[in-house]
């Protein structure tokens, strides 16, 4: 064991920006997921799918459940305010925000790379964000 001076850890500005953003986003996600869960379980907003229906069909995969209960899928729950103002849609939105955490952190890194004039990493980071956006859009999916 090294009992001498502790080694200094080095983090550049991009790592610090990513870490600060991740800390903020992760705390925000925990709060939003708790709010979404409370709204859903305690039925503080109307539900499009009752909790009992979800529990009774827990054995089904997502595709079969959507077919059985004739429920919207993908991004369609965000089409209008009426559809979105349901407890399960708010809960789902918190999960979507969780999946966006990486993109938010990468966007922060993009700004740090731009300030440092580090063009190669800037382009790589922008490409990563574009790939994640295309994947999240669902436009490149296989048929069922």
From TrEMBL:
The chain crosses the membrane at residues 21-42, 89-108, 120-138. The keyword Transmembrane applies. Keywords: Membrane, Transmembrane, Transmembrane helix. The keyword Transmembrane helix applies. This is DUF1634 domain-containing protein. It comes from Chlorobaculum tepidum (strain ATCC 49652 / DSM 12025 / NBRC 103806 / TLS). The lineage of its organism: Bacteria, Pseudomonadati, Chlorobiota, Chlorobiia, Chlorobiales.
């Amino acid at each position: 064991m090294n009992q001498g001076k502790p080694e200094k850890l080095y983090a550049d500005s991009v790592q610090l920006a990513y870490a600060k953003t991740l800390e903020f986003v992760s705390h925000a996600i925990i709060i939003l997921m708790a709010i979404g869960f409370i709204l859903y379980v305690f039925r503080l907003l109307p539900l499009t799918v009752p909790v009992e229906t979800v529990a009774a069909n827990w054995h089904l995969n997502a595709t079969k459940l959507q077919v059985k209960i004739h429920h919207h899928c993908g991004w369609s729950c965000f089409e209008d305010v009426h559809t979105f103002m349901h407890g399960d849609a708010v809960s789902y939105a918190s999960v979507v925000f969780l999946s966006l955490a990486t993109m938010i952190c990468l966007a922060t890194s993009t700004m740090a790379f731009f300030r440092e004039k580090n063009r190669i990493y800037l382009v790589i980071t922008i490409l990563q964000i574009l790939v994640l956006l295309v994947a999240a859009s669902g436009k490149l999916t296989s048929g069922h």
